[in-house]
Amino acid sequence: MEGQSTATSQPGPDGDYWLVDYVDIWSNHTPYPFNQLPKTYSFMVRNSLMWRIGYYGQQPRFIHVPTQTVSSLFVSKQVGEAFQHYQPDLVVSVHPLMQLVPLRVLRQQESRQPRHVPLWIRQVWASLDAVVRQQRTWL
């Protein structure tokens, strides 16, 4: 779904139809260069040395916490506006590193407007890769 936003109506288990929005928050709702992050993944996978540098380089807490904090400063407003616009009941994240900032945004919105944006929005991580070992930033 890279770079796309689509909506469809799906039958739910209760017989009612559910509105399902497929949204790439990072590609469609963040400024440059953050909106380019999803495109770098296929490059990293094809170049194993680059992938290893990215994977192991982000593991130490003293690196990934400041990196995520700085990223949040630049994209929180746009990600928050996307959540306000779509008002999701369920968020499915396809990569754990890409969910940390949106989760932070949801927590911030909950603290500011407890009734408008519920923190209990369910967030699911769907692993599309065969993972032998979880990275520390995923936990």
TrEMBL record:
Transmembrane segments: none
InterPro entries: Diacylglyc_glucosyltr_N, Glycosyltransf_28_UgtP
Domain Diacylglycerol glucosyltransferase N-terminal: 20-112
Domain of life: Eukaryota
One Pfam family of this chain: MGDG_synth
Keywords annotated in UniProt: Glycosyltransferase, Transferase
Record family assignment: Belongs to the glycosyltransferase 28 family.
The protein, known as: Diacylglycerol glucosyltransferase N-terminal domain-containing protein
